[in-house]
């Protein structure tokens, strides 16, 4: 029997309203496939009546229970940073942490969200034109997708957000990291879309709780590609409208899977089978979609 089976891997996810998360199932399924006794639990602030102020106690409790690491989601990705001992270069640049490794009494913060989006984009939209990209959303997810897009070599990047100052702040932060790119914030969206080659959507619009479109469908043209971060549901109204207009599209599932791939690697020190995790995710989302149709 291997040492890993004698000493189980324990991990968890801290966030609010996370009961529907597929992350635990992805981690545990891959752990089982690799011969690990892998436990992954949800630490949901909502039913615990907790907040970001409780992060110090939650982190300490995870350490005391022998956790190898924690995934971090809304609203804790920035709030967790002061409670960590070290940050990876990308987590420091992005200003957000979604993965914490607990090792030898120290806490190491990483960001696998940006890599998850970048890997999904490389696989799902290979060789598309990235000369001018519009992004909707400058929140936590938007920071990660902006960093990913610019890391992939986007030449001109326009960021739009309902909170103008947030878009401006993100454009300034990214400009410092990527000085050779042209980065603008909250100009004329229609004009930008008329010139853009692609669109990244990084807001909650399109989720089950926030239905609708993040921009008028008439702004989409067949020359555009459209990359989505929402994966509940996988087929958002934005993607439907984009496909009707002949656009190449990328759903948000890949980002969800590949950020988990990165976190699994950090927690276990083992190389996950990304394709196996992707297939598992697809089977779970297909099952969820079928159940939703049955309820209707």
From TrEMBL:
Q: List, alphabetically, the Pfam families matched.
A: Shikimate_dh_N
Q: Does the keyword Oxidoreductase apply?
A: yes
Keyword Nucleus attributed? no
Give an example GO biological process: aromatic amino acid family biosynthetic process
**GO CC terms:** cytosol
Q: In which pathway does it act?
A: Metabolic intermediate biosynthesis; chorismate biosynthesis; chorismate from D-erythrose 4-phosphate and phosphoenolpyruvate: step 4/7
Gene3D superfamilies, per this entry? Leucine Dehydrogenase, chain A, domain 1, NAD(P)-binding Rossmann-like Domain
Q: Per its record, what are the GO molecular function terms? A: NADP binding; shikimate 3-dehydrogenase (NADP+) activity
Q: Which residues form the Shikimate dehydrogenase substrate binding N-terminal domain?
A: 13-100
Q: Which SUPFAM superfamilies match?
A: Aminoacid dehydrogenase-like, N-terminal domain, NAD(P)-binding Rossmann-fold domains
Q: Which of UniProt's keywords are assigned here? A: Amino-acid biosynthesis, Aromatic amino acid biosynthesis, Oxidoreductase
Name by which UniProt lists this protein: Shikimate dehydrogenase
Which species?
Phyllobacterium sophorae
Q: What is this organism's lineage? A: Bacteria, Pseudomonadati, Pseudomonadota, Alphaproteobacteria, Hyphomicrobiales
């Amino acid at each position: 029997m291997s040492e890993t089976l004698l000493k189980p891997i324990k991990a968890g996810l801290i966030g609010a309203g996370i009961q529907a998360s597929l992350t635990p199932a992805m981690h545990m399924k891959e752990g089982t496939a690799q011969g690990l006794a892998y436990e992954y639990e949800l630490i949901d602030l909502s039913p615990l009546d907790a907040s970001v102020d409780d992060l110090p106690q939650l982190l300490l409790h995870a350490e005391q229970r022998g956790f190898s690491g924690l995934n971090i989601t809304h609203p804790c990705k920035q709030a967790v940073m002061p409670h960590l001992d070290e940050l990876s270069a990308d987590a420091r640049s992005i200003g957000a942490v979604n993965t914490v490794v607990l090792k030898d009494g120290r806490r190491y913060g990483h960001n696998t969200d940006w890599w998850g989006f970048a890997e999904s984009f490389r696989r799902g939209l290979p060789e598309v034109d990235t000369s001018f990209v519009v992004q909707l959303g400058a929140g936590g997810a938007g920071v990660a997708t902006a960093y990913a897009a610019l890391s992939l070599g986007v030449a001109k990047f326009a960021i739009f957000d309902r909170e103008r100052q947030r878009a401006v702040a993100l454009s300034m932060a990214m400009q410092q990291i990527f000085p050779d790119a042209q980065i603008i914030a909250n100009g004329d969206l229609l004009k930008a879309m008329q010139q853009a080659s692609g669109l990244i959507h990084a807001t909650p619009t399109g989720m089950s709780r926030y239905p609708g479109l993040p921009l008028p469908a008439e702004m989409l043209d067949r020359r555009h590609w459209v990359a989505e971060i929402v994966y509940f549901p996988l087929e958002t109204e934005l993607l439907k409208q984009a496909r009707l207009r002949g656009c190449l599209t990328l759903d948000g599932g890949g980002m969800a899977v590949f950020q988990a791939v990165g976190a699994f690697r950090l927690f276990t020190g083992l190389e996950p089978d990304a394709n196996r995790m992707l297939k598992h995710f697809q089977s779970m989302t297909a099952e969820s979609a079928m159940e939703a149709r049955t309820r209707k």
